[in-house]
Design brief:
41% helix, binds glycyl-adenosine-5'-phosphate, 23 helices, 7-stranded mixed beta sheet, alpha+beta
Length: 699
């Protein structure tokens, strides 16, 4: 299954990934499976490094984040509560011509002339007949014209009369199928009968085709004819052609320009069954035997009870385990729970290599914070965070931060993470989602973008980039939903809040109570709780706040591992073409990964493989470094070729063991040459200093 070639740079990247073992097509020997990718030896190392670095930065280096590793399949109730069963869908359209499926919101607008056809009839068998028919018809028309002319001549100016007659007949001609019978012309009635039979063999499905500027009208006819051929009309004669000009229409296929179906929602979750279910019984189509229908319904209902979903995000397990983690980790709000793991989405159009896949990995943090009303009760006001200076450290979190400050903080922290693994700010971008773009649970979301080779340019030639990570403010939506659906309390108790509330003056209490009440009521009503019940529950929640209880709000930095891998590969890819004296040119690729993420950190290269003393030393160097980092040992080929191989793999350092290492020059005994990938420079270092040197570079 070939991936569409987005552009030359992407083609080179995809080819390198396969050639060097970064990424392979899943199930390639069986022709591949669309939207699934495997990571080869280098890709697996790269991915592992990225996940390790994320885990390290998000959990081990912080006091306020704990980790979780949950199952992929969970109770289907989780997905009902989260809203995924009802709303996690993309608008999908099918092309009526080429039958391909697309996401309706990804159709590029197109302009041109639309050819509408109401149907087509089978023409092959009757074409000679129709030729005859048309000749006779023309004669009949001629005869009619004469008749009309005679009539008009008697009543009006002859020139005007024939003009009118002619126009009337033109219209008449276009409707000839029905009008034909009225023409009294000898010899035509038999033909008419046969023609009528022919026309019965027709397809009444209408189709519209967009003709792009500069294309001949035949191409629209050709597409329409193919459409009818697919429906059993072998030699289609198109019916009722009508044309219309359109501008920027998204109603036509970007590939074949046929009309698209109306958008319909397509749920992206993969379904499966837990336990032994008679799946064949579910697939069985009931016939009209009432007993069998009843049996089928029974089997179907049994099956439905066992439905489960492959998780479409790792986040929900974090919400479902919130209370367990809170109690066992002895954390207090604000704190976070982090998880790395697989997620699955049955994407309508997987595309751009691994960018949009059907199976992928996420690195998600759910960071739980106090609601702004609680902050205001405790600290008097809610602090916001101005944009921070990229050159200085992100400010340390403050107790009076509201959700906006925490949101801004996490955007900054995440950008700094990307900088730390080699994605400079210049390669990144930001997109603040508009209210229409926000997911059902979010009150705000900032996407961190990366400028991928396939990212689109705007009219000024600027590239904004495509989403690498989304940092969403999810309010208290998720925990509230799980509380409602599971019946288990998800709130926390906060001493500080209770004490602070007692000291507030009456006006402030009223104001905070009212605002919290209103927010809760809005949430409940939006979630379908009937108005009176919502009022009652929101009153309980606001009374709870006054006693120090609330459901935490959430800020969620959610990153895709696979997108990050693709970004790192695209960012690292660099090539130079050199031409030798004989005019032969060679292009050399260097993958300039940051040493922290590079799949192989150090390549150990004995200068000669047939010098046992050199080999022994090289093996000792490998043994020294191996417990600490991924080391590759290579003794095959010239040293130049070995360097080139490591450049392509993205290995930042090569260590060469040569005769000087053995003491040929006594002052260089037990030293090695380090060759740096990015500038080709070389440096001599003592073997005893190697480990510290490399650790300082890769950590
Ligand atoms: N829990 C929130 C959430 O899942 P999302 O924006 O749908 O939000 C978060 O996904 C991240 O997961 C995205 O920024 C992207 O990096 C990654 N991601 C989402 N869908 C993906 C797909 N089909 N293929 C690869 N990565 C994907």
């Amino acid at each position: 299954m070939a991936e569409p070639k987005e552009n030359l740079q992407m083609e080179k990247i995809v080819s390198l990934c396969k050639r060097r073992g970064f990424i392979f097509q899943s199930s390639e020997i069986y022709g591949g499976i669309n939207g699934f990718w495997d990571y080869g030896p280098l890709g697996a190392e790269l991915k592992r490094n990225v996940k390790e670095l994320w885990w390290h930065a998000m959990t081990r280096q912080r006091d306020d984040v704990a980790g979780l590793e949950a199952t992929i399949i969970m109770s289907p109730q989780i997905w009902k509560a989260s809203g995924h069963v009802d709303t996690f869908s993309d608008p999908m359209v099918d092309c009526k011509g080429c039958k391909k499926r697309f996401r309706a919101d990804q159709i590029e607008p197109q302009s041109g002339i639309v050819y509408h056809f109401s149907g087509a009839y089978e023409g092959s068998k009757f074409n000679p007949l129709l030729d005859q028919y048309q000749t006779d018809f023309r004669d009949a028309v001629k005869y009619k014209v004469q008749q009309f002319a005679e009539i008009y001549k008697k009543n009006a100016d002859p020139a005007e009369a024939s003009e009118q007659t002619f126009n009337a007949l033109l219209k008449f001609q276009s409707q000839f199928q029905t009008e034909y019978a009225q023409i009294n012309c000898p010899g035509l009635s038999k033909l008419h009968k046969e023609y009528s039979e022919a026309i019965e063999n027709k397809c009444n499905i209408p189709i519209s085709v967009l003709l792009l500027p500069g294309k001949p009208s035949e191409s629209a006819h050709k597409i329409a004819m193919q459409f009818y051929q697919q429906r059993g009309i072998n030699t289609p004669n198109l019916l009722d052609e009508r044309i219309e000009k359109v501008e920027n229409s998204t109603r036509f296929c970007n590939e074949c320009q046929s009309e698209l179906t109306e958008p319909k929602p397509f749920n992206l979750m993969f379904k499966t069954y837990v336990g032994p279910v008679n799946v064949s019984a579910l697939d069985y189509k009931p016939d009209i035997d009432p007993k069998k229908v009843e049996e089928w319904f029974k089997a179907f209902n049994e099956g439905e009870k066992n439905i489960a979903y492959l998780r479409p995000e790792t986040a929900q397990a974090i919400f479902a385990q919130f209370k367990n983690v809170l109690e066992t980790s002895r954390q207090r709000v604000p704190f976070g729970i982090a998880q790395v793991g697989k997620a699955f989405r049955n994407e309508v159009t997987p595309r751009n290599f691994t960018f949009r896949s059907r199976e992928f990995e996420q690195m998600e943090l759910e960071f739980f914070i106090k609601p702004d009303e609680a902050i205001e009760a405790i600290h008097g006001s809610v602090a916001t965070l101005e944009t921070t200076d990229p050159k200085s450290k992100t400010p340390d979190p403050q107790p009076n931060w509201g959700w906006q400050a925490w949101h801004q903080y996490w955007v900054e922290e995440r950008v700094r993470f990307y900088e730390g693994i080699g994605l400079s700010r210049a390669t990144l971008g930001f997109h603040k989602q508009t209210p229409a773009e926000l997911a059902h649970y979010a009150r705000a979301c900032t996407d961190i973008l990366f400028k991928f080779p396939f990212s689109k340019k705007d009219e000024q030639g600027n590239v904004a980039g495509d989403e690498l990570e989304g940092i969403a403010a999810r309010s208290d939506f998720d925990l509230s939903q799980h509380q409602r659906f599971s019946g288990k309390p998800m709130g926390v108790f906060d001493d500080e809040l209770r004490a602070a509330w007692a000291k507030l003056d009456e006006a402030k209490r009223k104001d905070l109570w009212q605002r919290y009440f209103q927010n809760r009521k809005n949430y409940l009503e939006k979630s379908g709780v009937e108005s009176k019940q919502a009022e009652k529950d929101a009153t309980d929640d606001a009374n709870g706040l006054a006693k120090g209880q609330y459901i935490p709000h959430v800020i969620e930095p959610s990153a895709g591992v696979d997108r990050l891998i693709l970004a790192l590969i695209a960012n690292a890819y660099s090539e130079v073409t050199e031409t030798d004296d004989k005019g032969k040119s060679e292009t050399r690729v260097t993958m300039k990964f940051h040493p922290r993420v590079a799949p192989i950190k150090v390549a150990v290269l004995p200068l000669l493989k047939n010098k046992p003393e050199i080999v022994k030393k090289a093996e000792a160097v490998r043994a020294l470094l191996r417990p600490w980092m991924n080391v590759f040992y290579d003794e095959a080929g010239s040293i130049g070729r070995r360097y080139a191989r490591q450049d392509e793999a993205g290995t930042p350092f090569c260590v060469t063991i040569d005769f000087d290492t053995l003491g040929e020059k006594p002052e260089l005994l037990d030293t090695v040459t380090i060759r740096f990938r990015d500038d080709g420079k070389q440096e001599r270092l003592k073997i005893s200093e190697l480990l510290d040197f490399f650790l300082s570079k890769i950590r």
